[in-house]
Amino acid sequence: MQLEKTVLKTIKMTDFTALVTICKDGSPHLVAGWNCLPLGPDTLLMAGERYIITRQNLERDARFWLLVASRELNNGFRLSGRAEFSDKPADVELIKRYWPRCSFALRLTVEKVE
Hints:
Helix content is about 25%, strand content about 45%. The chain has helices spanning about 5-10, 50-60, 90-100, and strands at about 15-20, 30, 35-40, 45-50, 65-70, 75-85, 105-114. Strand 1 (about 15-20) and strand 2 (about 30) form a beta hairpin. It is globular.
């Protein structure tokens, strides 16, 4: 899926990002997140500092839901798809350029936008 320009603009100008994964018992696990960087037509890179439970959830079930919203643009979107943690040097280097405290990257492959 190719992310539309309005979605990409909102991602770049987001004031708020929330990431949801699924816990072992099926309940949602919600964390506030750092902003995302678009990497490709359907891929985002999100910075991570801890996310211990999120990591455990994604290792078991790769599905995610991500909320991005911008007050300036007066809009927001819910993205969903599959995620994986990345410790690839290129991903971590890119993340650290914007968020130096972060130690890993989360690659989000978007399958649906609402």
